[in-house]
Please model this.
Amino acid sequence: MMRVLKFGGSSLVNADAVRHVAGLVREQAELDELVLVCSACGGVTNHLVQVVELVRTGRTVQALIEVNAISARHRALLFALDLGAAEPRAWLELEELRCELRELVARATISKADAAWSDAIVSYGERASVRLVAAALRQTGVKAEAVDATEFLVTNDSFQSALPLWDETRPRAAEVLGPLIARGATPVVTGFIGATRDGKITTLDRNSSDYSAAIIGELVDADEVCIWTDVDGVYDRDPRGVGELPELLEELSYAEALYLAERGAKVLHPRTIQPLQEKEIALRIRNTFRPEHTGTHIGPEATSLVR
Model:
């Protein structure tokens, strides 16, 4: 089977979490062909948004200090994973990203800090996380390769809320992902981002890595897309709220899932359903830290009712 596994920021928040994810993936890689989609490590995108705001308010020095702190966190995570000697490539890749980010910030002015520049800044989180996760996977024996979605996911130029251009994306995805999968490697792909025809980085909307996973699921004809997060699945109300206990919905139709997503269900991005529905690709929501739980299954039919 072909499965796309998406891991959100809460699943990649520190070295222990990344190590745990690597173990989960290793077990599944023994059974299925996999493509991973990763968000930025927990909290990193918020800090990158802060970098953008600092530059836009003329506080470039403070923005550079924040850049150094973000980069130091990624280096510390790689060190905590004990990958220094075994993964010199990952260290070099992170250093290249750090230099690129510093350059973008240092050369920016208030007038030039537009939406396109902002997308380039906030893309750093995903681009760093896939290199960390791929390195951690290789340490477990999984043949993993970090892939920037900018290599194949062609979008329009609606920066900060871009949409894929499917006719151009499909052949590029076949060229980039196809050979990796054919030789038994697991692509570890950046969520959240793509690129315009002329190569400018775009973002698909905030918290849209699950949408990225759905796009990639459609592109590789996946049998299932699984979103791994920090709750057991989709509930009929916010599980972190107060009052009446929430009920886990074990089965949902695409229509029911879309209904909940459009009304603010935080576990699922509203754009996720359409690419999957067109090819009837199953979607499952599971808890990274309770993998024994089967979570919520989303497909053409459902037995649970959304009231």
